[in-house]
Amino acid sequence: MTNSIHDMGGMHGFGPVEPEPNEPVFHEPWEGRVLAMQRAMGYTRLWTIDGGRASMEVLPPVTYLAASYYQRWFLGLEKRVVAHGLVGADEIAAGKSLRPGRRLNRKLTPADVPSTTTRGNFERPAAAPARFKAGDKVRARNLNPATHTRLPRYARGKLGTVEAVRGCHVYPDTAAIGAGDRPQWLYTVVFPARELWGEEADPTVSVSIEAFEPYLEPA
Amino acid sequence: MADDPHSHSHEHGSELSDLQLRVRALETILTEKGYIDPAALDQIVEACETKIGPHNGARVVARAWIDPDFKRRLLEDATEAANSLGHISPVGAHLIAVENTPEVHNLVVCTLCSCYPWEVLGLPPVWYKSAPYRSRAVIDPKGVLGDFGVKLPAETQIRIWDSTAETRFLVLPMRPAGTENWTEEQLAELVTRDSMVGTGLPPSPADAKR
Fold this sequence. Notes:
Chain A is an alpha+beta fold.
């Protein structure tokens, strides 16, 4: 969802950042299992990375905030395997498989694992030339879709400058809801902190977002 | 499950135990239904703990400090430059290196989730994924830097990169003074994870000795 709790940029009240010295990769072994299950199920290509993000964004805000990071991943994954008909809610409740699984096109084997430590390529051929170029003034549109988007609330309606054109990429807003890649041009758009946060903001600070073309209009 | 290498017997209070049971149950269900292979999961965990990590990014930064041509290529196409090193784990598309200078300090965040250049830095630390960092980095970056004990000159421009797409950002920190004759390997030792996110600075040779 668009306006849910995950969209945190600019919120107050969460307190200081608390770095942990010599932090381990995983604090508990189950965290590693959750990450690995997520990667292995992602390999089946039954959903996209954006679909995965969307399934966590629909968690109730109180659940989202109370859960640790890998707890959220787990809750999202559990929700997703049920939503995709891979596992029955009765099986989740029973804690075991009650019937054979569906046949899937891809299953991650140990031999495939090295390929999963390199990120996939989200760039796609462009159907049309880029609408904007570096230096163009743009305004982030005031979009509030009920479904997944990667346009953060704090940038909506704000005036910025295109700094770079990053190629044409899978569009998260459609990929998340099973509506296809619908590739869109991607731009780095930079906003002065004063545009985002008002005249009192620090004049030495600027913030950029990675904005897909449908998020922007000429200004 | 008694002989399952992934069974965990330690206690962490009832809530966490319940979670551990649910995680284990889901792995069992997905395995029994033929969707996942636990041996592949073992390898993913091992890769996260050993193969990927900030040592990869540190090699990239150290090379950029000693080799101007590599640095130029890194700032042009960080994926291509990182992969040309050969001795680090392969890096996928859209890695972008952003250079700290005396005028500009870069800081990377993902306000919407936890996007992080894990191929070169390893999995993100808890603080990077936490609400305090995600909420404040874009509105109070100097306060966030203060939480890390970093104080920059007042006139330094601060640039926040919110990782809202599949592009990933690696900060190229400034090379510390007093390292003129250092080897690439010695320099790599100075490159901390936080210095490549922008929440830290590489230590000076004197600080590194302490």
